[in-house]
């Protein structure tokens, strides 16, 4: 079974989360800059003397595919510890079971498609 873990975290926590995942030897990570909002619903800012609502917050999204529930728990625990500030807006972690995956170049499927191979 393959599991995808997605984490949306504060921008300033990028290096800490990346380094923590590297320490537990996670091999494949996809990172994106995203915008979103949660319970905090943005904030107000004064621009050229006018107050405006900033609704969407910049965040970082990590995507990691793991091969077992054990690794899923390990990755989730690692991200939670590295991304935690205790303030509203720390982010969310999601996990999904993957139905299928194919490596485009070799047509390998399943676990073989996501494991790192340096040929």
Automatic annotation (TrEMBL):
InterPro entries: N-reg_PII, N-reg_PII-like_a/b, N-reg_PII/ATP_PRibTrfase_C. SUPFAM superfamilies: GlnB-like (SSF54913). Pfam families: P-II (PF00543). Gene3D superfamilies: 3.30.70.120. It comes from the Bacteria. This is P-II family nitrogen regulator. It comes from Faecalicatena fissicatena.
